[in-house]
Amino acid sequence: MRARDSLSPPIASCLLLTRAATVLTMTQPQAVLVPGAAPTRAARATSPATVAEGPNVGRRVLAALGLTFLVVGLTDLALAWYPLVLGNPEWEFGTVSATINGLPVPTLGLALLGVAAAQSERRWHARLVGVLANLFLLALLGCAMLYALTVPVALQSVQEPMVRVGLVKGMVKAGVASTAYIVFFGWLAWRLLRPAPSR
What is the pLDDT of residues 173-190, one digit of tens each? Predict the structure, then answer.
């Protein structure tokens, strides 16, 4: 006969309760919410507000990075156009080429802002980025027309074959890049400005 069988029922019950308490204290503590008390660290980590904060932080980081790229890129483009010397074909050709070459940074910023705005609960964020994409599209269409007007003048002014080959390569690169940017800005504006699907 075991020793536990010889114990009285109250003592055996106490031993069982002690063993259960020991097992419970060895496991990981659970979050306990007491009305009026400050939540514990475990409760804060598993609360819905803290879990929902994760995507918000990622969206805010994307928006901040996008805004930084956009401001830096637009500053670079604005300085390329200052001082304005419209009517000078050499200046127009060089400035539009520099603008197209400088578009990756602000385009990346606008794309990051678009991603952040698409995940935002506020609809006006997406609309604002869509309007910016439309402005980029219109500005780039204007640059493309100005560039097309200066191409014949640039080709006539260069007679040396090697320089002419370099000029043609630059024109092809500018044409391909500007077409790709126009398509992207148009798609981004359409994507962000289209009406929200009805539920």
Answer: 999 999 999 999 999 999
